[in-house]
Structures are given as C-alpha cells and as structure tokens.
Amino acid sequence: MELIDGKAISEAIKKEISEEVQKRVQEGKKIPHLAAILVGHDGGSETYVAHKVKSCEQVGFKSTLIRFEDNVSEEELLQTVEKLNNDDEIDGFIVQLPLPKHISEQKIIEAIDYRKDVDGFHPINVGRSSIGLTSFVSATPAGILELLKRYNIETSGKHCVVIGRSNIVGKPVANLMMQKAYPGDATVTVCHSRTKNLADVTRQADIIIAALGQPEFLTAEMVKEGAVVIDVGTTRVPSDKTKSGWKLTGDVKFDEVAPKCSYITPVPGGVGPMTIVSLLKNTLLATEIEF
User: Fold this and answer.
1) How many CB atoms lie within 10 A of CB 78?
2) What is the pLDDT of residue 247?
3) Is 252 in a helix, a strand, or coil?
4) What's the maximum distance between 2 C-alpha atoms anywhere in the chain?
5) Which of 76, 124, 187, 210 pairs with 246 at a CA distance of 20 to 30 A?
6) What domains appear along the chain, each with residue ranges and CATH number?
7) What was the pLDDT predicted at 108?
8) Confidence (pLDDT) at 80
C-alpha cells in the first residue's frame, strides 16, 4: 500500500506556480489576482478561505477577500459579483459555498463571468469541460486527476466507481475519468443513494472515488485487493483528542481499507490540499487564455 501524499504534491505544484509567476514578473506581465467572497462565519469556509489567501501569498499572487455577514441580500451579492466581473485587475474569483438559505447559489454561480469562474461551477465551464474544450475544471476533480497523474496510476481501461453525484465533485470527476485523455479512458460507474447492491459494484472497481460526505462509509468488505481509493470526504466529527473538539474524517474507514489498497489518500492531507492548488492553477490559466 502506498499513501498518496496530497500535501507534498501540492507543495511541489505551488513551487512550479511560483516559478511561473516570477517568470511573468521578469517579462513585465501581470501578476495573477484571485478574489474570494465569503458570506457569514461558517467554520469550514473560514478555514478554507484562509488557506486560499495564504497559498496566494506563497506563490506570489495578489489576493482580495470580500466579507459579508449572513444577512447580506441576494441583490447586494449579485452587485458585488458584477463589480468583480468588470474589474480588469481581478483575473478570477470565487464565491465560497455554502451560502445562506435566502440566497440562490445557482443564481450567484450563473452571474459569475465564466471567464473568471476559477471554481469551474458555471454551466458554460461545465459544458465545455464535458466535451473536452478549454475550460476551468472544478478544483477538487482537477486535483484528483493531478494526484493520479503524479503517481503514474494507470486509468485507461480501468473500472472507476464514483460514489456521489454532486455537481461539485461526483458528476465532473466521473466525466473527466471517461474523457479521451490521461488520466481518463476509464469505464465509469456512478453510484448514489438509490444504487442497489452498492457493495457489489464497488468490489468490481479498480479505482474508487468516494465523494458522498458520510464519514467512514466505505469499509474493507466493499473494496477488492489492489484497488486505488481516493477519499474526497471531509466531515467534522466530535473528538476529545483535539483542541478544537473535532477532527476531519473521510468517507473511507481508512484503518481497515488501507491494507487492501495499492494506493489510498488520507484525510486530511490527501485531496484537500490539491483543491486549493487547482484553484491557483485555474487563476494562472485565467491570465493566459482567451475563450
């Protein structure tokens, strides 16, 4: 069993991005600028956005954080999105999800200029990505593919089972894994809450991508020997062993699944760090392409 070290890979990619930024500066080109809109004080969102700001500093990007309280109106948020759309200084921006219930997440996502949508959630980016055109690919799926690539894990002709069908991870990663590319060319099965005999399906998988948000859902009896397991789950569960009173737990029962795997990602330190560097890569891409 080999542990897939997302933290180490993400640091290597940050170094590559930093070198690219330095090269841009030497050539007199614009320094990439990433903005984030954060609504409210959700703990997970606060942590995630703080990591994004720090990562921007590490690679030499400019970053802007725009904060709103939970009671911000949808109209005010839409106006802020429009300002960022028209701000030539900003190359890409994200609106951190989840948003308060009185705000339509889909309306906000669709209001973002797809050419600045570095989260890759806009329907135009989703559509372009689905047929292999230049686009911003959702950060977490892009990060997963980068891990497979950096570890030289074969995907062509492999049976890949994706557990979960969210618009943010499940659907886009399933689509990417069946594209004519590497990583890709896999035979993909998507499982979800209505799947019958799910364990029978996962036991056939060469690669399992668990992205359903249920702690320790995937157990050893659901995995065949030698499988590659990518754990996307990050659920906060109570813990009396940490100062915060909680710990991050993945969708995979790691201790019992890991011995059966050829490769597996830990939580934390697996997919999570790759999500942020994928966002940075998309921001760098935003300064370089026209589409």
Assistant:
1) 15
2) 84
3) strand
4) 58
5) 210
6) 28-113 (3.40.50.10860), 139-272 (3.40.50.720)
7) 98
8) 98
Instruction: Choose, from 5, 14, 96, 117, the residue flagged as catalytic.
Output: 96
CA 51 from centre of chain: 13
231 catalytic, yes or no? no
**pLDDT (0 to 100) of residue 189:** 98
> Known catalytic residue: 79?
no
Active site residue 52: yes
Residue 47, pLDDT score: 84
Using the structure block, give the residue that is written with the tokens 């005999």: 197
Nearest Cα neighbor of 223 from 251, 204, 197, 250 is 204
Confidence at residue 246, expressed as pLDDT on a 0 to 100 scale: 80
What would the two tokens of residue 98 be?
A: 């989840």
At a CB cut-off of 8 Å and minimum separation 6, what does 33 contact?
61, 62, 63, 64, 89, 90, 91, 92, 283
Half-sphere exposure of 202 (CA within 13 A, CB side): 25
**Closest residue by Cα to residue 151 from 53, 230, 77, 204:** 230
Of 5, 91, 119, 251, the catalytic one is 119
List 14, 52, 116, 171, catalytic entry: 52
The whole-number pLDDT of residue 217 equals 96
Which parts of the chain sit beneath pLDDT 70? Answer: none
Report the candidate in 71, 99, 95 with the shortest Cα–Cα distance to residue 83. 95
For 225, other C-beta atoms within 10 Å of its C-beta total: 8
Contact 119, 149 (CB under 8 A): no
Identify residue 70 by its one-letter amino acid code.
D
- In 52-171, beta strands by DSSP E: 62-68, 92-95, 159-163
Facing residues of 163 across strands?
191, 210
